Amino acid sequence: MQLQFIRSQQRLYTMDDRGLVINNYDCRSAFVPGYNESGQPRESLPNGKYWCKAEIGDFGAPYGTFYITTHDYRARDIHGGGSGLANPYAPYQGWVPTLGCLRMQNADGIEVSNWIIANGNNILLEVVD
After folding, report:
1. Whether the Cβ atoms of residue 96 and residue 84 lie closer than 8 Å to each other
2. Per-residue DSSP letters for 52-70?
3. Burial of 56 (0-12, 13-18, 19+ CB in 10 A)
4. Cα separation, 120 vs 3, whole angstroms
5. pTM of whole model > 0.70?
């Protein structure tokens, strides 16, 4: 089992052990330009491979109702929500850029999180262009 985010498609795919697609979801990599608190330029989660763990709950308006940790060294993860949206906890809350994370709709992220948890809560994510 694994996840794949294809940046050019802005899609996240759940895949079985043979690499066949189980499902796919809107997932956005738009980020707010600028610099982080360490003075580094903001950028989206870089291409590469990450081991992910998922949680479901209330993570605050910026993050919504699920959180998928990629273990990226700058904490660029996958979450829902969105500060400034009318209802960042809604199942389909809308889109606003992040500070470098990938964003999904809450309902889709909960579905993916449940899938990650059901499959051992340690799933490989590959990020590609």
Report:
1. yes
2. EEEEES---TTTTTEEEE-
3. middle
4. 13
5. yes
